[in-house]
Amino acid sequence: MRDYTEEEQKMLAGMLPNIALQLRSVMSNLYMAMDSLVPPEKREQDPAVDRRAAVFCQSYYQLYRVVNNLTEAGRLFEHDRFTLYDGDIVGLCRSVCREVEFLFELRGVALEFSADRESRIIGMDGDALRKLMMNLLSNALKFTPAGGRVRVRVKADGASVKIIVSDTGRGMSADRLDRLFDRFLQTDRYDPVPHGLGLGLAICRRVAQGHGGTIIAQSEEGKGSIFTVSLPAIRAGRVCLHDSGSDYTGGFNRTLVELADALGPDAFSHKYLD
User: Fold this and answer.
1) What is the distance between the alpha carbons of residues 39 and 253, in angstroms, rounded to a whole number?
2) Helices (H), the chain
3) Using one digit for the tens of pLDDT, what is the confidence trace for 142-174?
4) Which helix (H) or strand (E) covers residue 164, if one does?
5) Residue 233 in contact with residue 34, Cβ under 8 Å?
6) Could you check whether the bond before residue 194 is cis, i.e. omega within 30 degrees of 0?
7) Distance (Å, rounded) from C-alpha 255 to C-alpha 224?
8) CB contact at 8 A, 274 and 50
9) CA-CA distance, 104 to 74, in Å (whole number)?
């Protein structure tokens, strides 16, 4: 694993968010056109129409996720990007798992959550850590076949708190593991289509670093993967009294946006989008 060069940081902080801004305006027109051609009431009344529209919706949400990651990648390298407040890391991880559980069920993948205590207060940026969790869960779901299992564990470990996300998916070789967190700079791809830009794990790494922590991956082909995030178990000494809402999704279901690459078209039927 290596740090980004100054040139790469400038690219992430400047060019990528500008591309995202251009794409966002075009995408808005596309979605309004689709919504006009296939209004919600028509989708609700005709299952065949709903299935065809769901394919479009999934593609749109996948692209929307790419655009959000382009925007977020730039923000992560802004000065003083992370503002830490005292919050319950166990409660945040539990909440994220509950939020995505039904989508794992749609894919036939079991999602298990456990913690060694009911709550643990640490200094954290809740929005950023939610983004990290969603990226790790999306990857785990994408690589784990039906009948498999994804486990999320939170446990205290001396001066740190560890978030461990493990899966029973296909795993990966040691050479791919070495380049995993800067994978968006590579030309070879390991993930199934659609590829996206590979920014998800790079963002996870930056979020962990922004908290004074680390993220590591362990994997073996055919035996699944384990991602371990270690965060300092110290308080920030200040409390956030409101949700900053920085995870912009333009009114779309943000859970579906985050997991769009890992789901099937059935998750984008009218009953889940409504």
Assistant:
1) 17
2) 6-10, 16-37, 40-45, 47-75, 89-107, 126-143, 174-178, 199-210, 254-259, 270-273
3) 999 999 999 999 999 889 999 999 999 999 888
4) strand 160-167
5) no
6) yes
7) 24
8) no
9) 30
